[in-house]
Design goal:
Layout lengths: L1 H6 L2 H19 L9 H4 L16 H8 L5 E6 L6 H8 L3 H10 L1 H7 L7 E6 L5 E9 L2 E8 L2 E8 L3 E10 L4 H8 L3 H11 L14 E11 L2 E15 L2 E8 L4 E3 L22 E2 L18 E4 L5 E3 L4 E9 L3 E7 L4 E11 L6 E2 L4 E5 L10 E7 L2 E3 L14 H27 L1
Helix pairs in contact: 6-7
């Protein structure tokens, strides 16, 4: 044995000596058998022994980690009901309402602007204490008031809104409005479509049977459910043999034709809402006194008395007055070139020298002056010469140029391709 150890390499000898020393030290520090726990020394193999374990009560553990469950009550705001009246109906004190509206500006704004039909949800804890309030703002936003850290705070919960495309088309049989409804467009979309093409088409007088339109638009989707209509992306309107195309420029939010020319013009084609017009009033214009046909120097719109009349373009009121022939009338100078005239108003809402903007209400339709019935007589003058406002070439707003135009034209091709694809899919149904 000694001879074997002698023949070992030096490194092995050192390691053997090191570990031998560790064993000797460990044996030296072993406890005396008499110092061991008598209970431990009596443990035998194969026997069962009880072991004390600290166990937390499951009921207590659950109660300490379980979030409080709220009880919700929903209330609908009644006509003439304020927040104070509503809180009283819910059983909440005026003091709580005061605390809420003085703790946060947003809370004050929400609770002082309640509308009939609004639905509010009140949340109470297990002790029947008020903890939260929710008011639905729209399909994807909810205003929330909650007790946090001993004070009330507010936040707006927002759901993610996705967008998808949809398509509508129709041929006009009776009127544009009915055609829009039959195609599946809602009221806002019908008015938006009329607004897009309103600088080229007089929707009060120029729409004809068998005119058609095609529309590509967005839908708002929340959690897989369509909750609203988005913008019109592209549209084509066929009116009396003419084709008008409008495409949305996503960057500016404005509409241009397929060549990047602005749809918006310096003047509205008609100075009132097409939905209110009942007919083209007496186009031969018999003089109410002599009974003779007199030259017709403008366009007459028959509509209900009180229908708002709009400024056709930006300008300055040249004259706002009354005489026995024109009744209440307004003349607007738009530049050294253009003047528009509005006659037989029930009342005027602008004054001479006042600056007005396109679409601003300048008065209401009536039957003042020498007339055979309530209507608006509208004239359009170019360099002092009367022109037909329904057919005159209107100056355009600024069109796209340069890189902006190139980007728009590329996107326009994509939008029009989508419109055509949806049209073909609809035809296959």
């Amino acid at each position: 044995m000694h001879s074997i150890f002698v023949r070992l390499p030096l490194l092995h000898k050192v390691l053997i000596g090191f570990f031998s020393a560790l064993i000797i030290v460990a044996l030296f520090f072993l406890p005396d058998p008499q110092d061991l726990d008598p209970q431990q020394s009596r443990l035998k193999v194969g026997e069962h022994y009880s072991v004390p374990i600290s166990v937390e009560s499951p009921e207590r553990s659950a109660s300490s980690t379980r979030p409080s469950v709220l009880r919700w009550e929903t209330y609908k705001v009644k006509n003439g009901e304020s927040a104070a009246v509503l809180f009283n109906r819910v059983g909440l004190s005026p003091r709580l309402l005061h605390e809420l509206i003085t703790s946060d500006k947003e809370i004050k704004q929400q609770l002082t602007r309640l509308r009939p039909g609004d639905r509010l949800q009140f949340g109470f804890d297990e002790n029947n204490d008020f903890i939260q309030l929710k008011r639905t703002l729209n399909a994807f936003e909810t205003f929330r008031i909650k007790l946090q850290g001993g004070k009330y705070v507010s936040e707006v919960d927002k759901k993610e809104v996705d967008y998808q495309y949809n398509y509508a088309e129709a041929t006009i049989k009776s009127n544009f409005w009915n055609a829009g409804i039959s195609s599946g467009l809602n009221a806002n979309q019908i008015m938006e479509l009329a607004g897009i093409f309103g600088w080229d088409i007089d929707f009060a007088l120029d729409i004809r049977k068998n005119d058609t339109f095609r529309v590509l638009y967005q839908e708002e989707v929340v959690e897989g459910e369509v909750i609203g209509r988005g913008k019109i992306i592209a549209a084509i309107f066929y009116n009396q043999g003419d084709t008008f195309t409008a495409i949305l420029d996503e960057k500016s939010g404005k509409y241009y034709d397929e060549n990047g020319r602005a749809m918006k013009k310096a003047f509205l084609r008609a100075p009132l809402d097409f939905r209110r017009v009942t007919s083209n009033f007496n186009p031969r214009r018999l003089h109410p006194v002599t009974g003779r046909v007199r030259p017709h120097r403008g366009t007459d719109y028959a509509a209900p008395v009180g229908t708002p009349i709009w400024a056709a373009g930006n300008g300055v009121v040249q004259k706002s007055a009354y005489n026995k022939f024109n009744g209440n009338y307004v003349f607007i100078k738009h530049s050294n070139t253009y003047i528009t005239k509005y006659l037989h108003l029930t009342k005027r809402t602008v004054k001479t020298g006042q600056r007005v903007k396109q679409g601003q209400t300048i008065g209401t339709l009536g039957g003042t002056g020498r007339v055979t019935g309530p209507h608006l007589h509208y004239e359009f003058l170019v360099n002092g010469v009367h022109k037909n406002p329904r057919t005159v070439n209107l100056p355009q707003s600024k069109s796209l140029t340069g890189k902006a135009k190139q980007t728009f034209l590329a996107n326009a091709k994509i939008s029009m391709a989508k419109l055509d694809r949806y049209s073909k899919l609809l035809a296959m149904r």
